[in-house]
Structures are given as C-alpha cells and as structure tokens.
C-alpha cells in the first residue's frame, strides 16, 4: 500500500497526476494538500472527488505544523511535491512568493520527510533550472544557470532536495520536466492563453520575435514519467522529462489558429519578457533508459489540448471572467507596447 501526499495536487499537473495514480494503482491512497492559491482549483479534481481513496486538505507547504499533522494523522509514506508558484511573468512582478513556496516550502516538506522517515520524497522540477540552452541539450549533471526568479527558486528547491539526501539520507528523487500542455492548465501559460483568446477572437500576444524555442509535452506523458521515477528511479538522482521535439512560439501560435480555423492576423507582437530564455532543450536518455517514452508528439498533444478547451468552456470561462484573472491580465499585458509584425522567421 502506498499512501501519498500530493502537494499542489489541485493545480494543473498535480490534478492530472492524481487522476493517473488513482486509475493505475487500485490500492493507493491519495491525499491532496494544497493552499488553493489563484492557480489551485477544486474543479480540476471534480471527477475524482467521490473516490473513497482520494481526499483533500487545504494547507500551505510552508506551514510545518500542519504538514506534520497531516503526515501523522494519515500515516503518509510518500510525498510528491508539485506545490509551487509557477509562472515566470508573475515571478518578475512578485518574486517573494516564489522564494517562500518554492524554496522555503520545499525545505519544510524535506524536514517532514526526514522527521517521519518517509519512504520517498519526490520533487517535481523543471527544465528551466538549466537556464537557456543556446545549442545542444541539458543533461542532469549540467550546471544550473538560472535567469528568472522562478527558475532560481526552483533550482534552489532542487539543491535543497539533494542536500537532504546527502546530509540526512532522505530518500529523494527529482524530475525536471519540459513545458506541459493539456487539460486544466491555468490560462496564464502561453498555450491556454492563446487557445482561449483565439476562441474569443482576441489577440494572441506573442513576446519579442516569437522565435523562442520550447519543448511542449503532453501532461499525461509527464505524469507517467514521474510515476516511473517514483517506482524505478535511483535515490538521490534527477531525471529529465521531455519529448526532444523543438517548437518555435510563432509556429505553435500558427498551429493553434489553424486548428481553430482562426486568422493569423490575431497574432499581436508585443514587447518581450525581460530576461526571456531563448531556448530550452533536454537530453532525456536517462529516463528513456528506464523505459519511458512520450505517447504524444507535439501536434497530437496540441490537438488534444485545443479540443479540451473547446469542449470545456465551463472550466476556463469561470476563471477568465473572475476579477483576479482580469486584474492579472491587465497588469501583465496592458502596459506591454505593441511592436508590430516581427521579422519573418
Ligand atoms: P500550477 O500553478 O497549475 O499549480 C500549482 C499548485 O500549487 C496550485 O494548486 C497551488 O494552489 C499550489 N500551491 C502553490 N503554493 C502553495 C503552497 N505554498 N502550499 C500548498 N500549495 C501551494 O502549476 P503546474 O503547472 O501544475 O506545476 C506543478 C509543478 O510542476 C511545479 O512545481 C512546476 O514548477 C513544475 N513544472 C511545471 C511545468 C509546466 O509546464 N507547467 C513544467 C515543468 C515543471
Ligand atoms: P510560458 O507558458 O510562460 O512558459 P515558460 O515558463 O517556458 O516561459 O511561456 C512559453 C513561451 O511563450 C515563452 O517563450 C514565453 C512565450 N509567451 C508569449 O509569447 N506570450 C505570452 O502571452 C506568454 C504567457 C508566453
């Protein structure tokens, strides 16, 4: 029996992971522990809310007493930590909350894992810890050369996780995933913001020249990789998770517009994000050697994602009509000057 505390399980990837684990392992118990920040949403877990092996506790990972109580009362043996502040643009506006949750919160969970002698602490991390990669692909042993407050906070969480393994023998693993897309992604990240804007015939704000490169993977492929590392990964090690397929933002925007039958004139070139990482690329030989490979290429992942947003307006219209989201949208985009059509790429 595994009794897993999924921190941040009410967010995008965490909720997909919970659904995956409940379906795949009929004897596992899952407790979601989530603060329900702007990004946490119990609608993401509606379809599992009646499952007797699932339960929810609202709480902050920075609250050591509450974390301690939940682990004791529920006899938790494993933590999988998705809880984080996750959006680069927000990290440029308010870095403090990133340091609190992504660094201090990770420390609190590691202390709890040490104190309770948990069987595993798994840290969900990101390809952004390597910084921008102009050529080649990042291996797990590469230096962490972060450039944004988000990636610096996540890298600090990784280093603290390794430190607890080295210093206190806490059984840790880390996964570093490339950009995820799929159901229930909060519409601040580029794909859901572009898809939902396009549905409403609103402009798609493309930063800079739109030639930045990302590896967009399907969220359930990422969840399967985390599951594999949880069961078969080597303690004290990190594993990259990505498709290896590179996509430029402008091409991703074109594909979204084509899938929705909308004109490319909806693309609006706007002032670039400060410190914008040009390219991420992961070497995924290590996780592939464990037996993982993504089930979706970028086109398949994007098509499924677009279809989900078309079919699930109930989910995102509630968010986008809210004051909190509109305030954020105004703050991030209203002051961004238009730069006109960039050089053709
Ligand atoms: P998200 O923003 O959708 O969800 C984050 C969740 O964490 C929310 O439910 C939020 O309420 C919760 N949370 C935030 N602060 C908390 C706190 N102090 N205590 C408890 N809960 C708190 O994020 P996501 O996109 O699902 O990302 C999940 C994890 O995966 C993050 O650690 C992120 O760094 C990592 N990651 C994300 C991507 C991506 O493309 N989204 C890629 C690689 C790695
Ligand atoms: P994002 O989804 O914020 O993820 P990342 O953490 O990789 O930055 O952005 C993905 C890419 O899309 C990144 O190169 C920035 C770009 N982008 C835009 O062009 N416009 C937008 O409105 C957003 C949010 C991002």
Describe the secondary-structure layout.
Layout: E1 3-7, H1 12-24, E2 29-34, E3 54-58, H2 64-74, E4 78-81, H3 88-93, H4 95-115, E5 120-126, H5 149-168, E6 172-177, E7 180-181, H6 190-199, E8 204-207, E9 213-214, E10 217-218, H7 219-232, E11 237-241, E12 247-248, H8 249-260, E13 267-270, H9 285-289, H10 298-311, H11 313-320, H12 323-334
Parallel strand pairs: 1-2, 1-4, 2-3, 4-5, 5-6, 6-11, 7-10, 8-13
Antiparallel strand pairs: 9-12
The structure holds nicotinamide-adenine-dinucleotide (NAD) and thymidine-5'-diphosphate (TYD).
Q: Specify the biggest β-sheet.
A: 7 strands, parallel
Please give the CATH architecture of the largest domain. 3-Layer(aba) Sandwich
Evaluate the radius of gyration: 19 Å
Q: Span from first to last CA?
A: 53 Å
Average of the residue pLDDT scores: 97
Overall number of structural domains: 2
Overall 3D form: globular
Q: Percent helix among the residues?
A: 40-55%
Provide the list of bound ligands, each named once.
nicotinamide-adenine-dinucleotide, thymidine-5'-diphosphate
**Element string (H = helix, E = strand):** EHEEHEHHEHEEHEEEHEEHEHHHH
How many β-strand runs?
13
Counting H and I runs of at least 4 residues, what is the number of helices?
Answer: 12
Helical/strand content category:
alpha/beta
The amount of beta strand, in percent, is: 15-25%
Strand order of the largest sheet: 3-2-1-4-5-6-11
CATH topology of the largest domain: Rossmann fold
């Amino acid at each position: 029996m595994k009794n897993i505390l999924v921190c941040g399980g009410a967010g995008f990837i965490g909720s997909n992971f919970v659904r995956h684990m409940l379906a795949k392992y009929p004897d596992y118990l899952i407790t979601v522990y989530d603060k329900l920040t702007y990004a946490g949403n119990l609608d993401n877990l509606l379809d599992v809310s009646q499952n007797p092996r699932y339960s929810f506790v609202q709480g902050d990972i920075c609250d050591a007493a509450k974390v301690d109580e939940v682990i004791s009362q529920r006899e938790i043996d494993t933590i999988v930590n998705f809880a984080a502040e996750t959006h680069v643009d927000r990290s440029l506006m308010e870095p403090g909350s990133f340091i609190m949750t992504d660094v201090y919160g990770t420390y609190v969970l590691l202390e709890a894992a040490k104190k309770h002698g948990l069987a595993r602490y798994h840290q969900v991390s990101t390809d952004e810890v390597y910084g921008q990669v102009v050529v080649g692909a990042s291996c797990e042993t590469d230096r962490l050369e972060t450039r944004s407050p988000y990636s610096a906070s996540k890298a600090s969480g990784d280093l603290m996780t390794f430190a607890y393994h080295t210093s206190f023998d806490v059984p840790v693993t880390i996964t570093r995933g490339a950009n995820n897309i799929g159901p229930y992604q909060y519409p601040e990240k580029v794909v859901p913001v572009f898809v939902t804007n396009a549905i409403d015939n609103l402009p798609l704000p493309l930063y800079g020249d739109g030639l930045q490169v990302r590896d967009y993977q399907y969220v359930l492929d990422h969840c399967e990789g985390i599951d594999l590392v949880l069961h078969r990964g080597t303690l004290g090690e990190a594993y990259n998770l990505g498709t290896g397929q590179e996509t430029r933002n402008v091409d991703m925007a074109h594909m979204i517009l084509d899938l929705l039958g909308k004109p490319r004139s909806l693309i609006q070139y706007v002032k670039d994000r400060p410190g914008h990482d040009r390219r991420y690329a992961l070497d995924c030989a290590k996780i592939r050697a464990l037996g993982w490979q993504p089930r979706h290429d970028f086109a398949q992942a994007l098509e499924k994602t677009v279809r989900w947003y078309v079919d699930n307006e109930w989910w995102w219209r509630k968010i986008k009509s809210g004051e909190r989201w509109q305030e954020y949208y105004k703050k991030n985009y209203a002051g961004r000057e238009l730069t006109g059509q960039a050089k053709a790429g």
